[in-house]
Amino acid sequence: MATRAAGTRITGSPRAAGGKVKRPLAKLRNIPALPTRSTFLSKRYVNSQQLSTAHPRAHIIVHFQQAVSVLRIHDGSEIQGGSTSAVVYFTQEYEDGPVSIKGEIIGLGFEPNVERGWHIHESGDLSNGCASAGLHFNPEGKNHGAPDDDERHVGDLGNLQIDENGDAYIDNEVINDKISLNGRKSVIGRTLVIHLGTDDLGKGGQADSLTVGASGGRLACGIIGAIPNS
Ligand SMILES: [Cu+2]
Ligand SMILES: [Zn+2]
Q1: Where's the Superoxide dismutase copper/zinc binding domain (predicted)?
Q2: Which residue, 9, 110, 149, 166, is the most exposed by fewest CB within 10 angstroms?
């Protein structure tokens, strides 16, 4: 087998010199790889012409979108935790693309070294604190589940790993292809909620396992707001 020239993709084109590509799938084989995770979050990359040529879908729809949720402890209508730094960003590079979640949850007073359920709840209503954020965002009418399950709510993010200081850091660890920042599955205007208990991912066999993963009460929450493209 001939050695490939540097930069040639493994799925090389079958095109002969001057010849016509006959196989209908040949075009698909020429799709370059998706941007890496590090370039994924780079607005500079996304806004450049590079993207339109790098990904054919993006060529049609360049739809870079970001959203943010600032979480606070809500006790009824009273908001606490003004000195916390609990901010979570959502980024979607193109319509129907994966959503990258990145952020830090500091100072909310979690026990160290535990897992705490977190979900996107359907309502952006915090008039009665986190309690009025409604059920898990579930536009497909499914049961509660794990993020990797087919049977899951769109808003099911599983558990947040709390570290030895009672904080949590999300560094693009969750690439969630179920939620979106546009369309029917858009989480913008809905609420990110972190619970007092661990999410059993629908498998605990408790009365509320298939609805809320037996995650317990709601400690903190924040509405997910849109960040306009600049
Ligand atoms: Cu929840
Ligand atoms: Zn759920």
Answers
A1: 86-224
A2: 9
CA of 38 to the centre of ligand 1 (A): 29
Residue 29 pLDDT greater than 80, yes or no:
no
55 is catalytic: no
Whole-angstrom Cα distance, residue 192 to residue 195?
10
The token duo for 102 is: 């990145």
Q: Is 29 a catalytic residue?
A: no
User: Which residues have a Cβ under 8 Å from the Cβ of 219 and sit 6 or more positions away?
Assistant: 73, 108, 109, 110, 116, 130, 194, 195, 196
Which tens digits make up the pLDDT trace of 146-156? 999 999 999 99
Q: Is 119 a catalytic residue?
A: yes
Regarding whether 41 and 109 lie in a shared domain, the answer is: no
Judge if pTM exceeds 0.70.
yes
In whole angstroms, give the CA distance from residue 159 to residue 105. Answer: 13
72, 116, 136, 152: which one is catalytic? 136
Same domain, 194 and 211: yes
Identify the band that residue 186 occupies on the pLDDT scale cut at 50, 70 and 90.
very high
Condensed to tens digits (0 to 9), the pLDDT of residues 47-84 reads 333 333 344 333 344 567 899 998 888 766 566 665 67
Tell me, yes or no, if 63 is annotated catalytic.
Answer: no
Q: Distance, CA 18 to ligand 2 centroid (Å)?
A: 55
